[in-house]
Amino acid sequence: MNITINGNDHTLEQIETIEDMLAQLGLGEKLVIVEQNRVIIDRGAYGQTVVRDHDTFEIVHFVGGG
Amino acid sequence: MLKIGEKTFDSRLLLGTGKYTDATVQQKAIDASASQILTFAVRRLDIFDKQQANFLESLDLTKYDLLPNTAGAKTAEEAVRLAKLARASGMCDMVKVEVIGCDKTLLPDPIETLRASEELLKEGFIVLPYTSDDVVLARRLEELGCHAIMPAASPIGSGQGILNPLHLQFIIEQTTVPVIVDAGIGSPTDVAYAMELGADGVLLNSAVAHAQDPVKMARAMRLAVEAGRLGYEAGRIEKKQYAVASSPTSGLIR
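Above: the input entities. Below: the structure tokens describing the complete assembly.
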């Protein structure tokens, strides 16, 4: 499956949901927020939200700032 | 007590989490500041470099009230997007609206700040806009329903302190929601001055994070907030042109 994450193209196999995607990226334990095709996904819904070919994702997190 | 929206806080010092070079120092500085509200930013995660240092991850964020900023936004739309992303964490409903209109001075874009604040209020956020010391803009932001007004003392990270105490005083006098002086603070003097002017709180980052001893400076800032607030509440004496003796002028030995 070809998807775009944070502006870069990626090919991920054997994933169905955002939860799968994050696990495969090694982000399962991290506090991240996901936007799918410009729609923010509720963190509780990662396990039910299906990833489709050519989806575009933003994966963001909190960093130090003032 | 500082009251923002429906929440009350014992501490009137809000602390930024940027620019620290050591996670342990940051945690100790936060402890020394006794701050209950921490600010931070929302950024893309580098999914190829998961080991990148992110000191925010070493903090127990559940112990604080979180004030994400919209830093990086140059338009209202970008600010709203960042605020919504932050809220999707499920950890915060406050947002520091920060829409920069000038890269060199980092001064806020007043029109985009106003637009973003209006939209975020409609979306149910607790909205704290970072603004210049423009008195009329501060009033317009309050009229929109903003939950606090956060005028800059001087440009972000400049450490120049309070450049226009008159305008800050005007804003403080006219505003019924909390006024939190944000940006440009350099030293405890600046903090105490802001609080003596009647500010309800101070938000700072660089002044602690870049101090030679951040932990000691964090404590100094906490004490300055308390000293300035007490001084404001106590009511200072009038300034007089000439001396007025403190000791009795009668009963002198001749």
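Note for the figure: DSSP finds eight helices and ten strands in chain B.
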